[in-house]
Amino acid sequence: MNLDQQRARMCAGEWYNDLTDELVAARENTVRRTDEYNASFGRASAEREMLLADLLEKIGRNVHFEPTFRCEFGFHISIGENFYANFDCVMLDGGGITIGDNVLLGPRVSIYTTNHALRPADRAAGWCIARPVTLEDDVWIGGDVSINPGVTIGTGSVVGSGSVVTRSIPAGVIAAGVPARVVRPITGADGVPPGS
Known about the structure:
By secondary structure, this protein is α/β, with parallel strands linked by helices. It has four helices and 20 strands. The termini are far apart.
C-alpha cells in the first residue's frame, strides 16, 4: 500500500497499520521539517509561513507557532487566518485537523486524532483508527488541554486550562474539566468593560 492509499484509509476512519514503511518514513520526514520550522523562530513571518505552507495541507495568513511545534504528518492539518499557538503544541493529525479563523491555543495544547487498537496484540502489530478534530472560528483553548479524536469545538467557545476534551463542545460556551463539560454560556457580561 502506498502513502496515498494509507492517507485515504485514515481519512475514511478505517483501520490502518501505523508501522508500515511509508508511514514511518512520512513521520521521519515530518520531524525533519518541523525541526526546520522551529529553527526558523525569529525570522520574517513570511519566511516561516512558507515553511508551514510546505508542511501543512493548508494555511491562511498570519499563522504562528511558538517553539516547539510537533505534528505527526502535517498533510492532514488545515488552519485558517490569524492563528496563534503558544509553546509546545502537538498535533497528531492522522484523522485530519481543521482549524478555523482567529483561533488561540495556550501552551502545551495537544490535539490527537488517532487511537491505537485496544487489544494488546493488535496494538503491538501497529493497528490504529483515526477520527477528525475540528476547532471552529474564534475558539480559545487554554494551556495543557488535550483534545481527543472525533471532537469538534464550536465557534467562539473557550476550553479551560488542564481540560481533557473527549466529546464535542457546542458554540459560545466555556467548557472545562476532566472530562471537559460545559460550565456556562459566554454572555455579554463577559465583555471588556467600557472605558477599559
